[in-house]
Design a protein that fits this description.
The protein is an alpha+beta fold. The protein contains 15 helices and nine strands. A five-stranded antiparallel beta sheet has the order 4-5-7-8-9.
């Protein structure tokens, strides 16, 4: 399997395919990640797909083999993740028996060569039959032989559905040797999902509330003044000060007079929501009305000075990624929220 070629095609499909095509790509990719031992990345991908599409999780397991694959993996990992509650429970003993039969089923030499239909069924019945070497390797428990025969698009559902092999997969057997690549794969597909299904963050209070949530605060009203929000454990959780209260119209106008510029309407709306925003691990501190300043005719919106207002444009200066011109101040914060969601 060429990992780079696969990922390029998968990202393209997530961006351009039908919704059903997206579901198929994400369902396959999640299982591919799971059989590499990257269960955390598989969970992250599925959770982001659920958040972006709001489609039932059963769309990721539309056939018996994929449903069986997830069931065997859940048993091997000792329970279901929260995202899997929408998948119906299966009789694993019955599924194991059915799978064992399918692994030993002989295949016709003409299988797949004729279009589906009665004629194809008759011809395949009378054509010479042979064991399927890929499935036989799974039946024999030979992961190395399976990987050598799996081809450019390995049948990871049939692999994961093999009950005797699921514990080894969950433990990190990684027959395809993709473990180190798994985070990049999940990240690229999550980014593609966010581009295909951009979040609707609504009003300014809703946008700020979403950023606060993604940064690790609990749900509920925005923290104000000296209020201390209850933290929600998560990878982005840090000790943070509470959000400043909204700026008054007088404070906003005073800042404009001091700066000698009229702030864009969306920046004024931001200040009316909260008079600045504390820094995050991936975003600078956004300045409130008292701290806004000008340098060489450019309004500095952040500390450090990586977010600037010039001639009505919001410019973000990143020493690694370069300079980005955002269409508005709000667009810069929406991008921040998107990056936080992708990383969560």
């Amino acid at each position: 399997m060429d990992a780079g070629e696969y990922l390029e095609a998968a990202v393209r499909d997530v961006l351009t395919a039908t919704d059903a095509g997206v579901d198929d790509r994400i369902g396959y990719a999640a299982l591919l990640l799971a059989v590499t031992g990257a269960l955390d990345e598989a969970d992250r991908l599925v959770e982001q797909w659920l958040a972006r599409t709001e489609r039932p999780v059963s769309a990721l397991a539309p056939d018996p083999v994929r449903a069986r694959a997830w069931a065997m993996l859940f048993e091997a990992r000792g329970g279901r993740p929260a995202w899997a509650e929408g998948l119906p429970p299966l009789d694993l003993d019955a599924e194991e028996r059915a799978h064992a039969v399918s692994l030993r089923r002989a295949v016709s030499d003409l299988e797949g060569l004729l279009p589906p239909g009665p004629i194809a069924e008759v011809v395949e019945q009378v054509a010479p039959a042979r064991p399927d070497r890929v499935r036989t390797a799974l039946a024999d428990g030979d992961l190395a032989r399976w990987a050598s025969l799996a081809g450019p698009r390995p049948d990871v559902a049939t692999l994961a559905a093999t009950r005797a092999l699921a514990p080894a997969l969950v433990a990190g057997a990684d027959p395809l040797g993709l473990r180190d690549w798994a985070p990049a794969c999940a990240g690229a597909l999550v980014a593609a999902l966010h581009e295909r299904y951009p979040p609707d963050v609504g009003s300014w209070p809703e946008l700020i509330a979403e950023i606060v949530r993604l940064r690790g605060y609990g749900a509920g009203s925005l923290p104000r003044g000296d209020a201390t929000p209850e933290p929600r454990p998560g990878p982005l959780l840090r000790d943070r000060p509470a959000l400043p209260p909204p700026a008054s119209e007088a404070a906003i106008r005073s800042a404009e007079l001091r700066l000698g510029v009229e702030l864009p309407p969306d920046h004024r709306d931001f200040l009316r929501t909260c008079d600045g925003l504390p820094a995050d691990v991936v975003f600078p501190r956004l300045l409130g009305t008292a701290d806004l300043r000008t340098e060489n005719g450019v309004v500095v919106l952040a500390e450090p000075a990586v977010l600037l207002l010039s001639a009505g444009h919001v410019i973000e200066v990143d020493p690694v990624l370069g300079t980005t011109v955002h269409e508005s101040f709000r667009a810069a914060l929406v991008q921040h929220a998107t990056l936080l969601a992708q990383a969560s």
